[in-house]
Amino acid sequence: MSDVSVQDQRMATETDAAVGTGSARDFIALLKPRVMSLVVFTGMVGLYLAPGNIHPVLAFTAILCIAVGAGASGAINMWYDRDIDAVMNRTQGRPIPAGKIAPGEALGFGVVLAVASVIVMALGVNVAAASMLALSIAFYVFVYTMWLKRRTPQNIVIGGAAGAFPPVIGWAAVTGDISLTSLALFAIIFMWTPPHFWALGLYRSDDYARAGVPMMPVVAGARETKRQMLLYTLLLLPVSAVPVLMGDLGAVYGATAVALGLGFVVHAIAVLREEGTKWARKMFGFSLLHLALLFLSMVVDRLVSAPVWKVF
User: Fold this and answer.
1) Residues in the chain where the model's pLDDT stays below 70
2) Fold (topology level) of 1-178
3) Residues 6+ apart with CB under 8 A from 228
4) What is the pTM of this model?
5) Per the UniProt record, which residue ranges are transmembrane (predicted)?
6) pLDDT per residue over 127-154, tens digit each?
7) 8 A C-beta contact, residue 70 and residue 39
8) Residues in Cβ contact with 221 at an 8 Å cutoff, skipping those fewer than 6 apart
9) What is the pLDDT, as a whole number, of residue 139?
């Protein structure tokens, strides 16, 4: 990690010394609610698609545990990254660098929620789902946040696996195991993550460079990042088709996956061709819509369509 300025180091020190007068809203902000919403939704879809039945109370418990576990990961991430958050424009307003919550409070809050979410999942739902939840939290905290993020431009490629676990957890909550279908859902999010975050990295590269975070645009340059973004969007197309090829989903999902996938590729090509960051910003926004609509189409497909081979 590159050295930050004396002023930035002083800011980080002052943040560590914060007494912490955070409100409920500040503690909620620690949970990264915007990120949590997409995590919870993909977990719900995994639970919905899984074969078998689950009592509504247990289903609610599973989703709540996924939400709390994701929020706990976010809180611990903010605790660990408080030094770099203090020097990045995008993150300076977060509760810890803003001095609203003391680092120790954030860490304790995150650890308690993480442990509680896993225990409740194990006791209330099943051990398989709890094990996947524990793995996702540990992967995000120890593998991505503490190991990869500050060491390699491949941080988001490998670390992105943490965000791909929710549909697997949801599936395991119903079935008690992991299947090829749930792994296909995992693979979709895994392949989606790099172009999603690199789009953000392109128009926030100055922020990451100042904080010494080796995001791909900072280390490899904008041009190479754009090439890899296009590659991942192209690879996402066949990966998104796997649930159809396996016979788990049908024509509605298949058509949506193709349309959204091609839209993602078009955005990646526009990013590759531009000199500025206008299309990178657009691609970041589209990527969020892409994943949300893709998983929504899985639910719609299951409701209204037969497997594609029966349709044709």
Assistant:
1) 1-21, 305-312
2) Tetracycline Repressor; domain 2 (1.10.357)
3) 194, 195, 198, 216, 220
4) 0.89
5) 35-51, 57-80, 101-123, 129-148, 155-174, 180-200, 229-246, 252-272, 284-304
6) 999 999 999 999 999 999 999 999 999 9
7) yes
8) none
9) 96
